[in-house]
Structures are given as structure tokens and as C-alpha cells.
């Protein structure tokens, strides 16, 4: 069985803590044939022959104390044949735009050749990472749309609950991009501007001050909990994104949080979604990350254990 990780160009990645590269290095360290595939080399045809891909070998190491990556570099490019049972890991970062959609279509076609894709492109196509979280009964109050009239009704309900601030964010971006905190009084005007700039629906939710204490990132693979960290925003900030300066520490899920994550993981596993990164605020699931789940290096560092090895054991 060969593993091919379909990833962004290295120049777009933070090499020392990239989840995809950690998985690749761990696979290779376990003597599993593993290569990297970039978007210019992704293709499919319907000839009745095995697909052949141009892929890259690589080298690097995982620090045994910090679990961060060192000296990652590309090596030779070679051409390999894909065979039934080989695995392609879909590891392209969002945004979920037209280019991303095209990649999913091609990967879906590759399944006809007996290739397994993690996460399954059909599963990614069906489930928006944010909306799927908000569909859960454990979700926080949420408005998604671009109707000012419906927004006003939603804001009035929040006002009656004694809330005075909301979060507005895009439906299809990542790492806290486009997420802003707005007072209820300024929300209608800001909402109109944001729907126009995004040319589409906007997510509006109550601002919960619990976020100052941190938001949990919990990683599951094949329905099994790999590990969790608490992402704590910088002082005076509300975004609990490590890419935006938040720090992290080891945390355990409560029984309630664990039960919800287990339930969702099993539901999505039936749709071919193996790897999930949950974001959890209090008892609310705030995001179900399935496009390119990350922070495996940080969670491994917190646990002092290479969790990519545990993931590989579960494949």
C-alpha cells in the first residue's frame, strides 16, 4: 500500500509544524512507501490503464522532545503507478473555492480506479465545516444568510437574552480569517457591508466571553480520540487560533464533550470522513474541521507522543 499526500506548495506551509508533513515523515519512518503530490501534477484519465503520477520523495525529522519538524526538504521527483488500495490524503488547505472544488471532483474520479482518499472527497463535498457543527443539537444560536430582515429578528432574540455583542464570520474561510466582533447596535450596518464584500451569506453568533479562557481543539481519527489541546487567545484578543498568536496546553474532554465528538465522528466515518478536528467552546461544537484538519504537531507536543503514529496504526 502506497500513501500519497496531496499538499500545498511548501512555500505556503509552516514547515516546522505542518500536520501533513508530520504524517508523511511518520509513514516513511515506518517503512511505508510515501510521496508528496502537488496540484500541477494531479490529473485523472479514463484510459483502462493504471494511473501514473509524478510525485516527490522527501526527507526531514521529528524532534523526539518537542515533536516539531526539522530540515524538511524535497528530494527527487519520480513517476509511480497507483494501484487499487493505495491511499491519497487530501491535504490542501481551504478556502473551499472553485479551485478546491475541482480538486475534489478529480479525486472523486480517482476512486473509480480503486484508490482510497482520506478524507473522502464526497464527504467533504457534502458537509460544510461550520454549518455541520451548527446543525447539531449542542450548537450555539446561529444565523447564516444575507437577509437583513431575518438578521434583525435574530438580533432581537439575542438582545432579549441580555447579550450585547456578536461574532460575524465567513462560511468558507479558515484560521480566523474574516472573523470579527461587533456590538449589537452596529451589527446591521456591519452585516450589510460584510455580505457585500463576501458576496454571499455571513455567519452571525453570540459572542461568548468563555473564549477568553480558551477553545478546545480535539482530533479524532476513525472514530478514535487522538488528543486535545486548549487554545488560549493572547491577552486582550478573542481569536483562539494558534496561527494568530494563541498559545496552547494539554486538556481533557469532559464526558459530555467526548460523547458529542464520538457521535459525530461515527456519523461522518460512514461518509468516508476519517480525520476530524473539532473546535469546542464550552459545551458547544463550534467547528467540525474535515477539509484539512490541523494542529497534530501541537497536540503531539502537548502529549509528548507522536500522534501521527497512532493515526497510522488505525488506518
Helices, by number, come to 9
Number of domains: 3
The helix-strand sequence is: EHEEEEHEHHEHEEHEEEEHEEHH
For the record, what CATH class of the largest domain applies?
Alpha Beta
Strand content: 25-35%
Question: Quick gist of this model?
Answer:
This protein is of the alpha+beta class. 29% of the residues lie in helices and 29% in strands.
Plain-language structure description:
29% of the residues lie in helices and 29% in strands. The protein is α+β, with helices and mostly antiparallel strands and 315 residues long. The chain has nine helices and 15 strands. Strands 13-12-11-14-15 form a five-stranded antiparallel sheet. It folds into three domains: 3-121, Rossmann fold, CATH 3.40.50.20; 129-133 and 210-314, 2-Layer Sandwich (D-amino Acid Aminotransferase, Chain A, domain 1); 141-207, 2-Layer Sandwich (Dna Ligase, domain 1), CATH 3.30.1490.
Question: What's the arrangement of secondary structure elements?
Answer:
Blueprint: E1 3-7, H1 19-29, E2 34-37, E3 52-62, E4 69-81, E5 87-91, H2 98-110, E6 116-118, H3 121-126, H4 129-134, E7 143-145, H5 148-160, E8 165-169, E9 180-183, H6 187-198, E10 202-206, E11 215-221, E12 224-232, E13 247-250, H7 255-269, E14 275-281, E15 284-289, H8 296-303, H9 307-314
Parallel strand pairs: 1-2, 1-5, 5-6
Antiparallel strand pairs: 3-4, 7-10, 8-9, 8-10, 11-12, 11-14, 12-13, 14-15
Helix pairs in contact: 5-6
